[in-house]
Design goal:
The structure is a single chain. This protein is mainly alpha-helical. It is 66% helix and 4% strand. The protein has a three-stranded antiparallel sheet with strand order 1-2-3. Strand 1 and strand 2 form a beta hairpin. Helix 4 packs across helix 5 and helix 5 packs antiparallel against helix 7. The protein is extended and about 80 Å long. Keywords: Membrane, Transmembrane, Transmembrane helix.
């Protein structure tokens, strides 16, 4: 039995450009106005859901911006000591999330510095380094939020990131004493 070996046709430059033409046409085309409106309505709907929750945050009862241990214990039918243990566990979990985020940040910074100091820079490496900045920003926001949660459970009160930064005795997270 004889098989024919037909040469595969080479892709033409024009065909490749046509297939990628949608990228060159308009930067706004992949993100139409209806997509943006749909995303905005989703975000506003989620915001309304969060606004309606009232004096509850993750099942913890609040009174005047402070965590009300007795009311939370009564709502769940447990002792206040059980709520204190739960809050201490949450504080420790937030501590370890913060430490893990900081550790990952330091490892990535070390790798980035190694590349910056010992590799020869070209356009592709510069673009890759710039593309990494949003990831670092998101990682920094994760670390800041985990540290704020640790502060919330430590101080037994709620607060925004601004309140955390201005009123916290230290921005470094602390483990629970119990």
């Amino acid at each position: 039995m004889k098989t024919e070996n037909k040469p595969t046709p080479k892709p033409s430059r024009g065909r490749a450009l046509r297939s990628l033409g949608f990228l060159a046409q308009s930067p706004l085309r992949p993100f139409s106005l209806s997509d943006v409106r749909g995303g905005a309505s989703l975000v506003s709907g989620l915001y309304e859901l969060l606004k309606r929750r009232g004096g509850v945050r993750d099942g913890v009862r609040l009174s005047d911006g402070r965590i009300d241990v007795v009311a939370t214990a009564a709502a769940y039918g447990v002792t206040p000591q059980a709520v204190e243990i739960f809050l201490a566990q949450q504080q420790n979990a937030a501590y370890w999330r913060t430490v893990a985020g900081i550790g990952l940040s330091l490892c990535l910074l070390g790798a980035w510095l190694y590349v910056a100091l010992f590799w020869s820079w070209n356009r592709q490496l510069l673009v890759t380094a710039l593309e990494f900045l949003p990831f670092w920003t998101a990682l920094a926001m994760f670390v800041l939020e985990a540290a704020r949660e640790n502060w919330i459970y430590r101080e037994r009160r709620t607060g925004s990131v601004r309140a955390f930064i201005t009123s916290a005795d230290t921005l470094w997270p602390q483990r629970s004493a119990s």
